[in-house]
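Hi V.,

You were right to ask for the full record rather than a summary. Here it is.
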Amino acid sequence: MGTNVQTVTSYLDTSYSSSATSTKTKNDLGQDAFMKMLIAQLRNQDPLNPMDGTEFAVQLAQFSSLEQLQKLNTTMSSLPDYLGSFSNAQVANLIGSEATASGNVLEVSGSATKISYKLPSAIAGATINIYNAGGLLVDTIQIGSQKAGEQSITWDSSGFNSGNYTYSINAKDQNGNAVKADTYINGVVSGVSYKDNLSYLVINGKEVAFTDVIKINKATK
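Predicted structure:
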């Protein structure tokens, strides 16, 4: 038994030393430490009570499992990049779809323009101010009481040139306290861009982070 152990120890020591030199930068500490511990255990075992062959096989199996886990960790580390590329490809398929996202840009292309927003609480009334591309106030809409939740109105934009406008909402509750509404963009996704591993949809000529998208409808024909 002692001769066999010495032979195995010599083989492991020689094989490990040569492989560790060529792959030192590739192996992390866990794998190196495990093999060194196993060789030291073989060298310093009691000759009168040598390591059981089954126990030695179990430890070799543990080493193999450790090596496989390290390879798995290396593979898993590249998974986020793969998922990011897959997500970007999926986002590109949204071009041509109707989208609602956080923002305050209105695209005027006809006599009726939809304005969507969300109220955190009920309001007694509100004023919607609409501005042109130069930031000048071009129209004002008065609305009455509304419940909390998602709301929308149709703005008569027949007298205005086509293009992008912006809007703001000044709302108050029954006690005269200001209520901050969340404003939305409604439009067709005309493009997709990628910045810092994030996807952006181009809606009404403005880049909107995909995380700010509220709703996506089926692509228009």
